[in-house]
Design goal:
Number of domains: 2
Strand content: 15-25%
Number of helices: 14
Oligomer: single chain
Radius of gyration: 21 Å
Bound molecules: zinc ion
Largest sheet: 5 strands, mixed
CATH superfamily of the largest domain: Metal-dependent hydrolases
CATH architecture of the largest domain: Alpha-Beta Barrel
Low-confidence stretches: none
CATH class of the largest domain: Alpha Beta
């Protein structure tokens, strides 16, 4: 058993505790969280730490399989520029190189205090690494096709990959088939995913409103994404013109998923959130909102309007996205970016996004808060300015 005290303990299940003490078992189980006065413990075996103690971080959106593309795709090219460059770069690496970069990227996440990951898989390249059990993962098998006649075939390939995952990891939980993004899906394929989610009580994820062009494609079959897709030879008939935006054109088709994580939401408006609120009673799903601020700066150089999500009491989570569109795989780096642009957002709110909300969405019930009986990991945030993150703040994984 070990005891740690710090300037502040953020249990996330309750208010921050100045000079709090965390008692933790040898296997990482929380035994007690208290203030110094409650503890009545004057024993010298308490390890005094400088900074803030909080639960291990949950990264709800990553593409571990793209780790070999670090620094390969140029910054600030916009969403369509990013996709075009990514497709061009994807094939130029050996399997050995890809595996090695995946292992290094996982190690980077562990060092950065991440304890669980919601990871997107388009192929099987991360399965062996995940089988080692170094980190808790929920794997989203991502599928896409705009061609309605290909829906069955693409869905079957997703199921095959899902089965392969279960065989390699001897695991049938923490895996689900998910749609890539509104603009890469036919209604037929969305329906198949929804049916699968209904039958298996799946949580699913989808990239949402990462660029303005996505909304324009749906609203009026116009804009940079529509034009780029046409140039790429995609049949314009496959680009759904609904007169509504990307979100409202897509979410109703996923109404039977247990929970949905919308990722990015850079161009999501107050009207969209109100639409979700008024329609969510028709949806079985609970909607969570993942933000990947550094990837947004990398690709579009724009951040979501966080105050909207706070005002509407939305459940926000943090994602790093992939090393193809980010400089690091660090939840803390994402929080520092948000804090820099929005110093008015309290640290307890940011840490709730980075821990509890993600653990809740991904259904890792042992993670997310410093509560008796849980095994959430323990991070020390050093070089903070009282209860504020600074450029110099770093994270040390304690447990
Ligand atoms: Zn992504």
């Amino acid at each position: 058993m070990r005891k740690f005290s710090a300037d502040y303990v953020f249990p996330i299940s309750g208010a921050p505790i100045p000079n709090g003490i965390v008692t933790i078992d040898d296997d990482g189980t929380i035994v007690n969280v208290s203030s110094a006065s409650e503890a009545q413990d004057t024993s010298s075996d308490i390890q005094q730490l400088k900074g803030i103690l909080c639960p291990g971080f949950v990264n709800t959106h990553c593409h571990l399989e793209l780790s070999h593309l670090r620094a390969q795709v140029s910054e600030n090219k916009g969403m369509t520029g990013f996709i075009t460059e990514l497709i061009g770069k994807r094939g130029n690496f050996s399997e050995e190189e890809i595996q090695q970069k995946i292992a290094t990227a996982e190690q980077e996440m562990i060092c950065n205090g991440i304890v669980a990951v919601g990871d997107i898989s388009n192929n099987n390249s991360t399965f062996k690494q995940k089988a080692k059990g170094n980190l808790a993962y929920h794997t989203f098998i991502e599928i896409f096709s705009m061609d309605p006649s290909k829906a069955e075939q693409v869905f079957r390939a997703g199921k095959k990959l899902e089965n392969e995952f279960s065989e390699v990891l001897h695991l049938t939980s923490h895996i689900s088939i998910s749609p890539h993004a509104p603009y890469t899906m036919s209604v037929e394929l969305l329906n198949l995913i929804n049916e699968d989610a209904k039958n298996n009580k799946n949580i699913i994820t989808i990239h949402n409103q990462e660029s303005e062009g996505e909304n324009q494609l749906f609203e009026s079959n116009s804009g940079v994404m529509y034009e780029t897709f046409k140039t790429m030879g995609i049949n314009p008939a496959f680009m759904r013109k609904t007169g509504q935006n990307a979100l409202t054109s897509t979410l109703p088709y996923l109404k039977d998923a247990k929970k949905i994580l919308l990722v990015h939401n850079t161009f999501t408006t107050k009207e969209d959130l109100l639409w979700i609120k008024s329609n969510v009673s028709n949806l079985i799903s609970q909607i969570y909102f993942c933000t990947c601020p550094n990837a947004n700066l990398y690709i579009e150089n724009k951040l979501p309007n966080y105050q909207l999500f706070i005002n509407e009491n939305c459940k926000v989570t943090i994602g790093t996205d992939s090393l193809a569109s980010n400089w690091s795989l660090s939840v803390l780096d994402e929080l520092k970016t948000i804090s820099k642009h929005h110093p008015e957002i309290e640290l307890n709110t940011l840490l709730t996004w980075a821990t509890k909300n993600g653990a809740e969405f991904l259904e890792f019930n042992q993670l997310g808060t410093l509560e008796k009986g849980k095994k959430p990991g323990l991070n020390l945030l050093k070089n903070t300015d009282e209860m504020r993150l600074t450029e110099k703040t770093n994270v040390l994984k304690i447990v």
